[in-house]
Amino acid sequence: MQENHPDETSENRQAPSVSTRQILPIYLQKNQYAIDLIFVECVLPLTALQPVANSADYLIGLMDYRGKSIPVIDLGLWLGIKPAEPYNLDTPVIVCKSGQKQTAFVVSDVMQVEVVDPDAIKTQSTFEENNAHFEANVNLKSHKVLLFDMKHVLSIDFIAKDSNIPTATSSSVT
Question: Which residues make Cβ contacts (< 8 Å) with residue 82, sequence separation at least 6?
Fold first, then answer.
């Protein structure tokens, strides 16, 4: 995981030009995706979590963040990507916020922030249908990634009780 400096928090970032967007490339196992930096509050190492009984397997627990309990979601598991390794203290957690809603996402790795031009972001009608979790393809320097639709993702109630959700296994940090 790359080192995250205090000046990279949402409060201290320099604003890009109006015509560009800053994205945070992430890895979920060997697959690369991206999150719009406007939704990222901070990147932290995984801390002790409070398990949530009878929850989905991707809800790995609740984290105390600035005195508030927020859900911690394994973003890869949520997409159906099985983890290759157990969580450890170096596992990155991205705290995201939209309005008053905060959720933390466990990812495999976090890369350096990239500034992209609007013409590098390609929306498709597929993303607009069926509440897709992605908003666009983004052309980076050497490859393309899917950009999460964080307004949609953060609107999901990950803690809602659902009889079709499998029982959570105990998640621990090693």
Answer: 29, 76
In which residue are the tokens 């790995």 written? 60
Amino acid identity for residue 47 in this structure? T
Task: State which fold the 22-155 domain adopts.
Answer: OB fold (Dihydrolipoamide Acetyltransferase, E2P) (2.40.50)
- What's the whole-model pTM score? 0.79
pLDDT of 122 reads 86
How many Å apart are CA 106 and CA 45, to the nearest integer? 9
Q: Where are the beta strands (DSSP E) in 66-168?
A: 68-74, 92-98, 101-106, 109-110, 114-116, 121-122, 134-139, 144-148
Q: Is 140 left (phi over 0), alpha (psi -120 to 50) or beta?
A: beta
Name the nearest CA neighbour of 24 among 11, 39, 14. Answer: 39
